[in-house]
Amino acid sequence: MVRRILYAGLLLGPLTVLVHYATDLGATAEFVLAAVSLIPLAWLIGEATEHAAEHTGPGIGGFLNATFGNAPELIIALIAVNDGLNEVVRGSLTGSVIGNLLLVLGFSLLAGPRDNLDRVSSFLSFGAIAIAILLFLIPAIPSWHGDPNRHEIVVISVPVSLALLVVYGVVTLYSLRRHRGLHVAGEASTGAWSLRSALLVLGATTVITALVAEILVGSLEEFAHKAGMSEFFVSAVIVAIVGNAAEHGGAVVVARRGKVKLAAEIALSSAAQVAVFLIPLVALLSWLIDPLSLGFREVEMLALAGGLVVTVITLWAGRSSPTRGAVLLIAYAVIVAAFWVAGDRGDHAEASSANGVGALVSGYVAT
Predict the structure, then answer these.
(1) Three-state DSSP class for 272?
(2) Which phi-psi region, left, alpha or beta, contains residue 149 (left: φ > 0; alpha: ψ -120 to 50)?
């Protein structure tokens, strides 16, 4: 019954796109319609990923889900760059890394049974994210004083981005070769889709998801204004969750079916891919539109580091359990509260001084 509802709900995606371009529906109604339509789309991406993993193994299956699932985030980020919403771009990308590490992985562990995880693969993702955080500090620290979008910080962000792409290439090649060696071909279960069919479904669903996510983001400003939320909170929490809808649904779906190892691969692969691939890619592509600096805020850097430390400690033994999932979700709730308190920095340091955000962040760091 549930599957039939989800299959029928797939019609909401094209309907949302049609309504957006053919009617004058209000922004709030569009937001709700787009959010609901993302649920069956995320479920279908999870279905296709699970079937693809029958042919490739959980490691490569998680990589495929991360790749297709992060496509909407790339589109959202470039649209925001084009609109000059630099804080939205940075907030949504850091929020995406944190959301995958704590929210997606947390729900997956909570929904699935106790099981062993691929400890080597997990710590490979952790290492990539740790390198990204250290490199982010190079442009981030000077951005904490003055205009975070000034030219020198934009220029510093270029070599940092190139270095991260090199890290991504090395880690991805090693990971894929390792998983290919571990996986034995011909293990697909009866009834599994062909690999080609699974990939075609992933590609088509990702395109529709990207269009729907764009519509949702376009209606977020009015929705957030009515809800009394800051722009930073909207980008780092709501936009990040929307952009990660595919990973959210995909990971939880496969975890509930007992495939916690695949769910963990989805969450961790996506977090690492955003940190060492998507963020530097957006920074470099932004030069074709409006150069973007990687001038992340103090609260963002603390949240990234804190989220990584909590996840590493929680999964140190290489075991999954609902209790460990609950720990990650609690950590995510704490970070969300910190983002709410932090408020907006604004586009310039003068704006930050005027609204007192700088003092607020300083107090947060001191704690």
Answers:
(1) helix
(2) alpha
As a whole number of angstroms, the distance between CA 102 and CA 82 comes to 30
| Structure tokens, 319 | 């075991």
Domain boundaries, the chain: 2-184+191-366
Strands (E), the chain: 115-116, 319-320
- The amino acid present at 100, given as its one-letter code, is N
30 near 231, Cβ under 8 Å? Answer: no
CA angle 225, 227, 228 (to 5 degrees): 65
Length of the chain: 367
Within 10 A of 327 (CB to CB), how many other CB atoms are there? 19
Chain position carrying tokens 């704590």: 102
Name the CA dihedral angle for 322, 328, 333, 335, rounded to a multiple of 10 degrees: 180
* C-beta atoms surrounding 325 within 10 Å: 22
Judge whether 269 and 65 are in contact, CB under 8 Å: yes
Rounded to a whole number, what is the largest CA-CA distance in the chain? 63
C-alpha dist (Å) from residue 209 to 22, 44, 50, 325: 18, 10, 18, 27
Beta strands in 77-211 (DSSP E): 115-116
Name the one residue in this structure whose structure tokens are 């094209």: 14
Per-residue pLDDT of the chain (367 residues; tens, 9 = 90+): 667 887 888 898 889 989 888 888 777 888 888 888 887 887 787 677 767 767 766 556 666 666 666 777 787 788 888 878 888 889 989 998 999 899 989 988 887 778 888 788 888 889 999 999 999 999 999 999 888 889 999 999 999 999 999 998 888 888 777 655 554 444 545 567 887 888 888 888 878 887 887 787 778 777 777 777 888 888 888 878 876 766 666 677 777 777 788 788 878 888 998 999 999 999 999 999 889 999 999 999 999 999 999 999 999 988 888 899 999 999 999 999 999 998 887 534 433 333 433 343 334 334 3
Distance of CA 322 to the CA centre of its chain: 22
How far is it, in rounded angstroms, from Cα 341 to Cα 138? 25
Locate 16 and state its tokens: 């949302």
